[in-house]
Amino acid sequence: MKTILFFGDSLSAGHGVGQSNAFPALIQKQITEAGLEYKVVNAGLSGETSAGGKYRIHNWLNRKMDIFVLELGANDGLRGIPARETSQNLQEIIDVVKKHHPETKIVLAGMEIPDIFPGRYAAEFRALFRQLALKNNLAFVPFLLEGVVGVPHLNLSDHVHPNTEGHKMLTQHIWGVLKDLL
């Protein structure tokens, strides 16, 4: 059986809805229904930044991974971490996965932040994901939270994390890219 490793933050971890209702578990249901031989492993950690992920990835390198879904960066954006730093951290994660698992297919889940941030930060942040995907020839989900962010009935009361209905939309975004790799 092949393995898909979701390496992310609270979105993957299912903050507020539990792992069983988070999009990685919903992806597993779609895979099972399609009769495909893949096991989803959820390595989501609430609060994780790209810097934290850069160090935490080493705990997962001894695991089998046929597909690696990288879903980090939202917390960087919320904290205003420089886009260049986030990009460098994500690149290091990509590099170490490629080095230890050269046959692994990598999917990058892009993130955006509102244009309310001062200066060019929001544009630079949005662009960093596209640039990484192009540079590394990665399968790419342009904006994981598209159609979910800012929509009250798709989010928890914190207005940040998707509810179960929101996670269904995230599943659609990921599945749209992932299904072609299976």
How is this structure best summarized?
By secondary structure, this protein is α/β, with parallel strands linked by helices. The protein has 7 helices and 5 strands.
Description:
Strands 2-1-3-4-5 form a five-stranded parallel sheet, sandwiched between helices. The protein has one domain: SGNH hydrolase (Rossmann fold), CATH 3.40.50. The protein is of the alpha/beta class. The model has no long low-confidence stretch (mean pLDDT 96). The chain is built from seven helices and five strands. It starts with a strand and ends with a helix.
Secondary structure topology:
Elements: E1 2-8, H1 10-13, H2 23-33, E2 38-44, H3 50-56, E3 67-71, H4 74-79, H5 83-100, E4 105-109, H6 121-136, E5 139-141, H7 164-178
Parallel strand pairs: 1-2, 1-3, 3-4, 4-5
Helix pairs in contact: 2-7, 3-5, 5-6
Q: Give start-end ranges of low-pLDDT stretches.
A: none
**Number of spatially distinct domains:** 1
Q: How much is the radius of gyration in Å?
A: 15 Å
Q: Tell me the strand order in the biggest sheet.
A: 2-1-3-4-5
Protein name: Arylesterase
GO molecular function: phosphatidylcholine lysophospholipase activity
Pfam families: Lipase_GDSL_2
List keywords for this structure.
alpha/beta; Rossmann fold; five-stranded parallel beta sheet
